[in-house]
């Protein structure tokens, strides 16, 4: 692996509480030498990571860095060309995937009512529970819209519905690919609040963002990708204030990253 800067107690000298999150944990989500090549183009290259089972990990990097592909590989949506994803020491399987859910930049909603969208997610788990559905809708601030066709919701509301559906499965890991990219600040804050609440309940969040302010508000740790490679992984405060690689410094200062 080239150029990976792990912000650790050793690399920084002084002990740091956040650095303890980097210690491998038997419940950790790990990738080992994860690579993806399509049409002979290496898109993800030898990514080795050990993510704490708690907290919010933000994935950052310039356009085309491989952030979305990394998320899809971790979720098992695409198979790697080589390397592995393990979770709690076990190889990612359909069974483990059931404990993960994914939220995309463009919310996925079904052509039915808001309530029926959540019912559908519950039913996929063999659950029929209108009270739980209503509690989920209330949690994301959509209970008043329950009977409305989901397609008529605003973009921010649709994303909150997507979150309610993702949360309906009580995931241990929630993967979020730029879920607030096209939303206004008020909608962004509502979604961030829901994400923080999920984190507080113990859901591991892996969240792709381009927004440095959002990383500052949410991230416990940050993965920085560039050109398919992992360049840095470490506590958010250290990454945001003192990145170790030139690429990350350029990215954080708004310069073009090459
Ligand atoms: N199915 C595919 N076939 C070929 N190339 C692909 C495929 N999917 C993604 N890529 C390429 O892989 C690279 C990484 O894509 P990815 O979507 O992961 O980037 P990203 O970091 O999420 O970018 P952005 O911030 O623009 O969303 C890009 O150059 C993209 O064009």
UniProtKB/TrEMBL annotation:
Entries under Gene3D superfamilies matching the protein: P-loop containing nucleotide triphosphate hydrolases (3.40.50.300)
Lineage: superkingdom: Bacteria
A GO molecular-function annotation: ATP hydrolysis activity
UniProt-listed PROSITE patterns: ABC_TRANSPORTER_1, ABC_TRANSPORTER_2
Location of region: Disordered: 1-25
Database matches in InterPro entries: AAA+_ATPase, ABC_transporter-like_ATP-bd, ABC_transporter-like_CS, P-loop_NTPase, PstB-like
Entry keyword S-adenosyl-L-methionine: no
Protein name: Phosphate ABC transporter ATP-binding protein, PhoT family
Keyword ATP-binding: yes
């Amino acid at each position: 692996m080239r150029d990976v800067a792990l912000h650790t107690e050793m690399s920084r000298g002084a002990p740091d509480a956040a650095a303890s999150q980097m210690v491998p944990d038997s419940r950790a989500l790990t990738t080992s030498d994860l690579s993806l090549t399509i049409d002979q183009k290496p898109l993800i290259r030898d990514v080795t990571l050990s993510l704490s089972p708690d907290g919010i990990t933000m994935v950052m990097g310039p356009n085309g860095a491989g952030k979305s592909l990394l998320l899809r590989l971790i979720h098992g949506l695409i198979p790697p060309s080589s390397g592995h994803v393990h979770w709690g020491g076990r190889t990612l399987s359909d069974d483990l995937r059931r404990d993960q859910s994914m939220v995309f930049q463009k919310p996925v909603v079904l052509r039915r009512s808001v309530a029926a969208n959540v019912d559908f997610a519950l039913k996929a788990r063999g659950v029929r529970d209108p009270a739980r559905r209503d509690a989920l809708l209330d949690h994301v601030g959509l209970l008043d819209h329950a009977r409305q066709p989901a397609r008529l919701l605003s973009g921010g509301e649709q994303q909150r519905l997507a979150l309610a559906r993702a949360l309906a499965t009580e995931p241990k890991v929630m993967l979020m690919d730029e879920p607030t990219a096209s939303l206004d600040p008020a909608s962004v804050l509502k979604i961030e609040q829901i994400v923080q609440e999920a984190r507080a309940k113990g859901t591991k969040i892996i969240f792709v963002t381009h927004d440095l302010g959002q990383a500052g508000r949410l991230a416990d740790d940050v993965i920085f990708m560039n050109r398919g490679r992992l360049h840095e992984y470490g506590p958010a405060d250290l990454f945001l204030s003192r990145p170790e690689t030139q690429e990350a410094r350029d990215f954080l200062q708004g310069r073009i990253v090459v």
